[in-house]
Amino acid sequence: MKFVLEVDMDRGVVGEETVRELERILRYWGGNLRHYGLKPGDTSVIYDSGYSEVGRWHITDSGEAPPE
Known about the structure:
Blueprint lengths: L1 E6 L10 H15 L10 E5 L5 E8 L8
Antiparallel strand pairs: 1-3, 2-3
């Protein structure tokens, strides 16, 4: 399996304060993962501190294409 986290650093607050916002995103989503089964197909949208959608994470089988 693969855990893939993608953040568009040109969107939302991330583009304004990249390092601080990435730190916050990683802390928040790292702590929130316990609420998911972490099996292939699990996914969630990632929001910045201004509640703008800036990416997503997903779990795939190693050879599986990411969800659209």
